[in-house]
Amino acid sequence: MAPQIAMYTLIGRDLSLEDCITLTADAGFDAIDIRQRDDGIHIMPDISDSDARDVRKMVEDAGLHVSGLTTYWEIGNVERETAAEHLAGIERSLHTAKILGARFMRVSSGDYDRRWSYEVSRAAFRDQMMRVRDMAAQYEIVVTPEQHGGRYIASAGQCLDMCRGLESPWLGIVFDPGNAVSEGFERPWVQVRMLGGWIKNVHVKNRMTAVGEARAHERLPGSNVRIPDGVLDWDEIAGELRDVGYDGYLTCEDFAEFDTIEEKFRWNAEFLRGLAEKWD
Q1: Structural domains of the chain, count
Q2: What b/e string do you get for 223-252 counting C-beta neighbours within 10 Å, with b at 16 or more?
Q3: Which of 87, 143, 202, 229 is spaced 20 to 30 A from 96 at the CA atom?
Q4: What is the pLDDT of residues 92-110, one digit of tens each?
Q5: Are 222 and 200 in contact (CB under 8 A)?
Q6: Domain holding 63: CATH number?
Q7: Predicted TM-score (pTM) of this structure
Q8: Residue 154: which residues within 8 A CB-CB, separation 6 or more?
């Protein structure tokens, strides 16, 4: 089955949620992935049930559905109080995601912290993933940590090392090869084959590499560019995703510059629809 295409609302960070929903529908997307963070872009973690129902109605009245809820809660904090705070936040957000009708919910992995060894951080991540798995099953929503630089799942290899043996219908990974251009890079087709069934959402964007500075090795330099102008070959990536049986969402997370936000939404909808046609 061909993937559906979704817009992540952070791309419209300067828009109200209502305007973002309108532009997403007008551009021709199937779904919207709503950002939730305490900075107010686009819904707050303490959103009421009533307000969440209003958001769902607004989305559905526009002819869309909520593909996902993107949160910034973390899995893998070593300190117990911090871990408990984030686990409680995950459960609250799962409640909101259920009201919104979301299919998945994005979280982060723990951030790098040199106080702790890799094995200690890994043990914390895996223990908390098992707790989150049980929460996700209760709400019937897939929880998806995102492959992201600066965290313990920057690469496909790290994702596998952290997650292997925890397979569940309610756990997945947000596959983001654009993030891995700067940290965690493996050949993109290899990443897809490594992660396989763990991939439950795909962030589509591109980057172009740049000349670095001596000893500045924490994150390789580069810039956000329009998808055809970056180092990633999305035609090849789409073919690999199709071949491993991926049938989730292709989600726009394009941070490149466009003349207008309307152009950005329309262009990405057309591009993602073209990628989805590779499943036909």
Answers
A1: 1
A2: ebbbbeebebebeebbeebbeeebebbbbb
A3: 202
A4: 999 999 999 999 999 999 9
A5: no
A6: 3.20.20.150
A7: 0.98
A8: 147, 148, 179, 180, 183, 184
